[in-house]
Design goal:
Blueprint lengths: L1 H26 L12 E6 L5 H23 L7 H10 L1 H14 L6 E10 L2 E3 L2 E3 L2 E10 L6 E7 L4 E2 L6 E2 L22 H24 L2
Parallel strand pairs: 1-5
Antiparallel strand pairs: 1-6, 2-5, 3-4, 7-8
Helix pairs in contact: 1-5, 2-4
Length: 218
């Protein structure tokens, strides 16, 4: 068991180096298209920049986007901002429950906050365009202290569509009722489609490796 922990610590050190590169690459993938004047963003703030907290941030992202996809699919007009706003407000408690469940499943005991309103954003690049800092309507999920790197995307109207199984970006006509599972960090850059597929595969491997290492210390 001691030998296993030694190997685990060595692998963990290598993971930190890989995470610092891979996490930035994945978070920096920007969706295609410009952000309309009337839109609703999603912003998730991690508890910290620690490896475990950043992994949990992505798990929460996946849980929220998956749930939003289901609700968007039920709308008569998935492009209606008013309808989208109403759905989010109606299901805020359910979104919070989903976030809480994800944190519990990940072994995290810190709190969280889910809110819809005007949220401050720093200057962002999205789809090759720069958007000035300011307050924008958004669904904001704060995990713990919310001091870590954030993840964000545009919930409504959906501008980029992602296959949840592979993380590959799809053409806009292939899934008109899907919410993007891609977004950007504070300083996103454009990513090539082929590179995105490889990066998501590497990220999945890193997450599984982290879970294995964490299991050695339980």
């Amino acid at each position: 068991m001691r030998r296993g922990k030694k190997y685990g610590l060595i692998i963990f050190s290598l993971m930190i180096l890989l995470m610092s590169w891979e996490g930035q690459k994945i978070d920096s993938a920007a969706a295609e298209g410009a952000i309309p004047q009337q839109s609703i963003r999603l912003r998730i703030l991690a508890h910290s920049d620690g490896v475990g907290d950043q992994i949990v941030k992505r798990r929460v992202r996946d849980a929220v986007v998956e749930q939003m996809n289901a609700w968007v699919g039920e709308l008569e007009d998935p492009q209606s901002l008013e309808a989208a706003r109403g759905v989010i407000r109606e299901h805020l408690d359910e979104i919070g429950e989903r976030v809480g469940e994800t944190l519990a499943e990940s072994g995290k005991k810190y709190g969280y906050k889910v809110e819809l309103g005007m949220v401050p954003f720093p200057t962002k690049m999205y789809g090759g365009a720069v958007y000035p800092a300011g307050d924008y309507e958004a669904l904001r999920v704060t995990l713990g202290e919310g001091n870590g790197k954030n993840w964000w995307c545009v919930l409504f109207p959906p501008l980029c569509f992602v296959d949840a199984g592979s993380g590959d970006a799809l053409q806009n006509g292939q899934g008109s009722q899907a919410v993007s599972a891609k977004g950007g960090a504070d300083q996103p850059v454009q990513a090539e489609p082929g590179e995105t597929k490889v990066r998501f595969f590497l990220w999945d491997m890193l997450v599984r490796l982290w879970d294995w290492i964490a299991g050695l210390f339980r």
